[in-house]
């Protein structure tokens, strides 16, 4: 399969080049050159903002049912093209092809759900206290043109969460994929255009991340920004939006804790933990990272977990039996090594992995570490990669306290068959999503979002469309 020719979609036209020059896109598998990326510069970015401003006037006039029909068609096209798009995703990001295809079909399900949800953006009529006011209608209207900044770890899913929800609400949108994963996002944008989203309602730009965000946030025509990425960048963009009083939704990663109680189903917990940790090479914001295992089970649990971790098959995402691909970028490989080396220097023990694999491609061995001291970066910096930390606990309250101790609060997990503990852990773990006895907290029908520094607002579920709307009161009086 050939990597597709990358283009920008601006002002209703596919463009082969932009004024921002080009940049190499390299394969995570073998570092070979996949293509040259055309980059939009300020001129095209401002044109894109004008385009979605015009597109908003057209798209917002379509009623929810009309938008629903178009978005459902886009979802079907994604399903039809899932293999083709999935191959591009794997080429540029590295994950196994079956995970890529699953990502695309899930993105189609998210689109379906948000399209349906648009039909349920109900208003309400509030009873009046004044004799001459005859109605007080509270309605929701689309917020306006949106700038959607997506990352590289789930480049289709996380693009579609933003694009489909914005369009479902009646907003127009500029999609900016990560610079490592523009191809699959471009093919998904094509599905939405082919389904009938008007050209000006959807623009697609690739560019230098800070330039794209500076230009689009500062353009007065953009009314909302949605960002998924790291905490430091989220803070910068949030500050820029706050200064201009623009709406901002952010999803900024996590450092998820997993509490394994003494009554947990141990073989099930270990099997779930291996898959949960190393899927997508651990490059998942809800990825479990810090295990707190009851002391009575710790030694046996860790021995089996390490054994299973060693068996994970690394390789090309295109090979059917590959379980874990390379990391998506060279800098992620460097970060993994820095985190492990720093932890070891401060007293941590590596139980398996802890190093690069091979010298071509960005593979890092699935890694398990223990005795990580609180001052090691790994203890408080999100690894966002294939590193698991295992520690023992004796008192459940102490484990909960440790789980809640970081500024991150996206997802948290616990394994226990005791109903009372399930209740307590569900209530006490500080996170936007708590999974009890499983890691599957990211579903099209359920809200996804973090507390504390993990972000502001939600995507997906009934909550996912609301950030793309404004509330309006229409109050009518007799003359
Ligand atoms: P990074 O901070 O360099 O970039 C993170 C994301 O932000 C990337 O997608 C990048 O394109 C984008 N970005 C960077 N500068 C930007 C700017 N000025 N304006 C707009 N977007 C900008 O980190 P990285 O090395 O790419 O990824 C690792 C870190 O990012 C991890 O620590 C992880 O927390 C975070 N991350 C989180 C998610 C998530 O799903 N929450 C996804 C990807 C990355």
TrEMBL record:
A Gene Ontology molecular function term of the record: succinate-semialdehyde dehydrogenase (NAD+) activity
PROSITE patterns for the chain: ALDEHYDE_DEHYDR_CYS (PS00070)
Enzyme category, top tier: oxidoreductase
Listed Pfam families: Aldedh (PF00171)
Gene3D superfamilies xref list: Aldehyde Dehydrogenase, Chain A, domain 1, Aldehyde Dehydrogenase, Chain A, domain 2
Family, as annotated: Belongs to the aldehyde dehydrogenase family.
Name of protein: Alpha-ketoglutaric semialdehyde dehydrogenase
Catalytic activity, EC: 1.2.1.26
Keywords annotated in UniProt: Oxidoreductase
InterPro entries referenced in this protein's UniProt entry, alphabetically: Ald_DH/histidinol_DH (IPR016161), Ald_DH_C (IPR016163), Ald_DH_CS_CYS (IPR016160), Ald_DH_N (IPR016162), Aldehyde_DH_dom (IPR015590), Aldehyde_DH_Superfamily (IPR050740)
Entry keyword annotation includes Oxidoreductase: yes
GO BP annotation list: gamma-aminobutyric acid catabolic process
Organism listed in the record: Ephemeroptericola cinctiostellae
Positions of the Aldehyde dehydrogenase domain: 14-473
